[in-house]
C-alpha cells in the first residue's frame, strides 16, 4: 500500500489534482490551504545561487591516512595510519551561473568537508595551485569582471583583460587558465589544491607552514577548446553527469593527498613570500609528502539538500590546523561564512549536510530555520554559574609574531613574471602553441589596443617569446618599452 500524500504539517491530502473553487468555473477559494502551501513553497524553492561557484557537482566519500604526519600536526583525523574520516566534496566552475555549461574555460572549485571527531574541517581550494589576486580587497572587483556587463548583460572581454592587464599578479594564474589545464576532461581527471598556505601545529605546540596537493589517481586529462564547445552545446551538464555515472557504476574516483612542509623560520628568507597565493613553492625546495587517499564512493540522494545546501568555509578549522597571514585567505575567513549566512541562513551549519559528527555545544540561539531544539532550556550565556560549556585553553591557536605600522600595505615581493615564465618554458612546443592560440582567441574581442598591448607587455616580461607570439597572433607589436 502506498503512503498517503500529506501537507508539510503531516495532514493527509484528499485531492492533489484540483484546487478548491466555487463551482466548476471558480473562482478559487482562499481556504484551499494545500494550494496556498504548494504555491508559497514553490516560490521559495530556489535559494539565491552562489555569487561564485554557482554551478557544481558533489559526492560523498572517505579520507584514509596512509602516512604518519603526527610530528607535524595534532589534528585527530590525521593522527594514525589507516584512520578513515567521512567527507563530502563539491566541484564547481567559478564564473558561470547555476545553469551554465560545465566545459567552459574556468578554474574549478575543489572544496572538501571532512567530518572529524573534533568538528568539521573544510579545505576550500581550486584545481590550480595559485590564484589571480593576492589580496581580498580586490576580489569583488575581479569577480565583477567575470560576470555580465550591467547594460548588455553579456560577458565582457574588455573588463576581463583590462583588469588582468592592470593586475600583473594575475599573470601566473592566467597562464595556467589559458593552458591545456583550463578545461579539464572530467572532474575526475584533474588535480586539486588548497592553494593557500596554512599552519600545522603538533602536540608539542611546534608549527610548520603547509600547502595541500590532491593528485588525481585517474591521471590528468583535458579537453581541446573545439571539443569543449561542442560538448557545451550538446550536454552542458557533462561533468556533473560523468561524476555521477562513474560513482554509480562503482568506478570510484580517488586522489592522493600530499603536502609541502616549510619550517616556520623559512618564511622570512624564502625567495618568494610563502603567503602570496599567486606564487608556488618549488617542490625541489619543499618536496611532496604523502598524507592519504581520498575516495568518492557515494552519490548524493538529493542534489538540493546536499550539493546546493552544503556550505564550506576555509575558516572551519580543527585543532592542529590554523590560518596563515595570507592576505587572500584572511579575507576568505570572513567572506565565505558570511555568504552562507546570507544565502542559506543563520543556521546553515545545522543542516544535515553541514552538521558536524562532533557534539556541538555553544550559546548561539534563534535565527531563521532552526532545525533542532534551539538549546532547549539550558543556559544561554557565558560565563555562567550553571555548568554550561566552557572554553578549553589547550585548544587555543598558537601565537605567531606580528609587527609593523597599521596601514594599507602590500606584499614586499612584486616579481610577478619569473614563475609565469618558468611555467611557459616548462611547456612543450605543442603546449605553448595551444596556450598562445587560446590567449589570442580570448583577447581578439577586446576593443582597445592599449589594453591588449599592456597585457602583451606582461607576457613579454615573463618570457620574450611568450609576449612576441601573442602579439603576432593579435597583429600587434610588442611595446617598444619592452622589446
UniProtKB/TrEMBL annotation:
Which residues of this UniProt protein bind heme? Answer: 336
Q: Which cofactor does it need?
A: heme
SUPFAM superfamilies tied to this protein: Heme-dependent catalase-like
Annotated catalytic residues: 53, 126
**Bias (Polar residues):** 1-22, 385-400
Q: Which reactions appear under catalytic activity for this entry? A: 2 H2O2 = O2 + 2 H2O
Q: Name one GO cellular component term.
A: cytoplasm
Region of interest called Disordered, as start-end residue ranges on this chain: 1-26, 385-414
Name it: Catalase
Q: Lineage from the top down?
A: Bacteria, Bacillati, Bacillota, Bacilli, Bacillales
Amino acid at each position: 500500500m502506498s503512503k498517503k500524500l500529506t501537507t508539510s504539517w503531516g495532514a493527509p491530502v484528499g485531492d492533489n489534482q484540483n484546487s478548491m473553487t466555487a463551482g466548476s468555473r471558480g473562482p478559487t477559494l482562499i481556504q484551499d490551504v494545500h494550494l496556498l502551501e504548494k504555491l508559497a513553497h514553490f516560490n521559495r524553492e530556489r535559494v539565491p545561487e552562489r555569487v561564485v561557484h554557482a554551478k557544481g557537482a558533489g559526492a560523498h566519500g572517505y579520507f584514509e591516512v596512509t602516512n604518519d604526519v603526527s610530528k607535524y600536526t595534532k589534528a585527530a583525523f590525521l593522527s594514525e595510519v589507516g584512520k578513515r574520516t567521512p567527507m563530502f566534496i563539491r566541484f564547481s566552475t567559478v564564473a558561470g551561473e547555476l545553469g551554465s555549461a560545465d566545459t567552459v574555460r574556468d578554474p574549478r572549485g575543489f572544496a572538501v568537508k571532512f567530518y572529524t571527531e573534533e568538528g568539521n574541517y573544510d579545505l576550500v581550494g581550486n584545481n590550480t595551485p595559485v590564484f589571480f589576486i593576492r589580496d581580498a580587497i580586490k576580489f569583488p572587483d575581479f569577480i565583477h569582471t567575470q560576470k555580465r556587463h550591467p547594460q548588455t548583460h553579456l560577458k565582457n572581454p574588455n573588463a576581463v583583460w583590462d583588469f588582468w592587464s592592470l593586475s600583473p599578479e594575475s599573470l601566473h594564474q592566467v597562464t595556467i587558465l589559458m593552458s591545456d589545464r583550463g578545461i579539464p576532461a572530467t572532474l575526475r581527471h584533474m588535480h586539486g589544491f588548497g592553494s593557500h598556505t596554512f599552519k600545522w601545529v603538533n602536540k608539542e605546540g611546534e608549527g610548520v607552514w603547509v600547502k595541500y596537493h590532491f593528485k588525481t589517481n585517474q591521471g590528468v586529462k583535458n579537453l581541446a577548446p573545439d571539443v569543449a564547445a561542442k560538448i557545451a552545446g550538446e550536454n552542458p551538464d557533462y561533468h556533473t553527469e560523468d561524476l555521477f555515472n562513474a560513482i554509480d557504476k562503482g568506478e570510484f574516483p580517488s586522489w592522493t593527498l600530499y603536502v609541502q612542509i616549510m619550517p616556520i623560520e623559512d618564511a622570512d628568507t624564502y625567495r618568494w613570500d610563502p603567503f602570496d597565493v599567486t606564487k608556488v613553492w618549488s617542490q625541489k625546495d619543499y618536496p611532496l609528502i604523502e598524507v592519504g587517499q581520498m575516495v568518492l564512493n557515494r552519490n548524493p540522494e538529493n542534489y538540493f539538500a546536499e550539493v546546493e545546501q552544503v556550505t564550506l568555509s576555509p575558516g572551519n578549522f580543527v585543532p592542529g590546523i590554523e590560518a596563515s597571514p595570507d592576505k587572500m585567505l584572511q579575507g576568505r575567513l570572513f567572506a565565505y561564512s558570511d555568504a552562507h549566512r546570507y544565502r542559506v541562513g543563520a543556521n546553515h551549519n545545522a543542516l544535515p549536510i553541514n552538521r558536524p559528527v562532533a557534539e556541538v555545544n555553544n550559546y548561539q540561539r534563534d535565527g531563521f530555520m532552526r532545525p533542532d531544539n534551539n538549546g532547549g532550556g539550558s543556559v544561554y550565556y557565558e560565563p555562567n554559574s550553571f555548568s554550561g560549556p566552557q572554553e578549553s585553553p589547550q585548544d587555543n591557536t598558537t601565537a605567531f609574531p606580528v609587527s609593523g605600522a597599521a596601514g594599507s600595505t602590500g606584499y614586499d615581493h612584486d616579481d610577478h613574471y619569473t614563475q609565469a615564465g618558468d611555467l611557459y618554458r616548462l611547456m612543450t612546443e605543442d603546449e605553448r602553441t595551444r596556450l598562445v592560440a587560446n590567449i589570442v582567441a580570448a583577447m581578439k574581442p577586446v576593443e582597445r589596443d592599449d589594453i591588449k598591448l599592456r597585457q602583451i607587455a606582461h607576457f613579454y616580461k615573463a618570457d620574450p617569446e611568450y609576449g612576441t607570439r601573442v602579439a603576432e597572433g593579435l597583429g600587434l607589436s610588442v611595446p617598444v618599452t619592452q622589446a
